[in-house]
Amino acid sequence: IQANVTNGQWTNFQFSFTYPPQLNALRSLDHQNIVRFVEAIEVVDEFNCETKYIVMDYCNQGDLQRYMKKNYVKKPLPAQKLISFMIDLMRGVSFLHQQKYVHHDLKPANLLLSNGSLLIADFGFTTHESDTSPIIGGTPAYLSPEHSSNEAKNYKGDVWACGCIAFELITRTVQQKRKLCEASGHNLQWFKDLWSVHVVQT
Question: Which residues have a Cβ under 8 Å from the Cβ of 103 and sit 6 or more positions away?
Answer without folding.
Answer: 93, 96, 120, 123, 125, 126, 158, 161
